[in-house]
Design brief:
Blueprint (H helix, E strand, L loop, with lengths): L1 E4 L8 H8 L17 H4 L12 E7 L2 E9 L13 E6 L8 H15 L4 E7 L4 H7 L3 E5 L3 E7 L2
Antiparallel strand pairs: 1-2, 2-3, 3-4, 5-7, 6-7
């Protein structure tokens, strides 16, 4: 597996990965893909790469991108403030559970530290098993609502 920066011509893949990032409680009754058109979700990928705070790493296996982690300074579900990038991440289902997500997350944390961001935030569904991965990486609960945990990781 190779972890690397996304290339400009690959950015359209983020529309696939934002759908994969949506926690699906019932695999037999998937949310329609059109959900990504909702403005609260589309903000994570809309015109990605146009600002200095848009950063994305991808995981490549056998010349195929199988996962992505990206950050943006947006008013998303895990918004902290205008200077804190919010993280989104997903791995294709057939590649989950083998450490790709953990390696992507660790690589993005290192990347953000090098860029001197003071912190990074995210929102994760309370039932999503990925919450354990975020806690292991050092993220802390900052807030919760009916559905999600809002988590923050200090990078200093």
């Amino acid at each position: 597996m190779i972890i690397r920066l996304i290339r400009e011509e690959e950015r359209m893949l983020l529309t696939e990965f934002i759908y994969e990032a949506i926690f699906q409680k019932d695999p037999g009754n998937l949310i329609p893909r059109t959900i990504i058109q909702d403005p609260s979700i589309w903000i994570y990928v809309d015109r990605f790469g146009e600002t200095d705070h848009d950063h994305c790493l991808v995981a490549e296996v056998d010349d195929m991108i199988v996962g992505a982690v990206w950050v943006r300074c947006i008013h998303g579900f895990g918004h902290m403030d205008n200077d804190t990038p919010e993280l989104a991440m997903s791995v294709y289902p057939q590649y989950r559970g083998i450490g790709i997500g953990t390696q992507l997350l660790e690589a993005m944390i290192c990347f953000l530290k090098e860029k001197r961001y003071p912190q990074v935030s995210l929102s994760v569904d309370k039932e999503n098993y990925a919450t354990k991965m975020y806690l292991r990486a050092g993220f802390q609960m900052r807030d919760t609502n009916d559905q999600d945990h809002i988590m923050v990781l200090g990078l200093n």
